[in-house]
Amino acid sequence: MLAAPSQLTDQTVTTQLTTNCNAQVAATFDTNDSTWVTFFFNGTIPCWRALVSIGEVEVELTEDIAIAGIVLRKGLTVTMHPMGRYYTVTMNGEIVDSGKESSFTGFVLGSFIRSAAMKRAMQMLRKQVSR
Question: Which pLDDT belongs to residue 7?
């Protein structure tokens, strides 16, 4: 499988992992670089949601989750890798889809800017939307 493309200017990256499972990574651009990672069955049914940030750079699935024809295996991890002005979110673990097991090691789910300017821009957008 190919790694997700770097999306340094977008807030959300969606990556197809198996035939019926995809992951969506959504950066909040808050002070802690909080980033939601949600795994979906068929792009519509959420199976597992994890939050990584500079305070909690790795989150591990503590038990198997089975939804329809997919199983997210216990031990699947989502990790944030801060790298100066940028950070990347990766995953490690196994997903079973229709009986076929796929293993992921250091699989890139998305990359984001950590710049103060981007965070300020997102804060301004949120203020305008909330009015």
Answer: 44
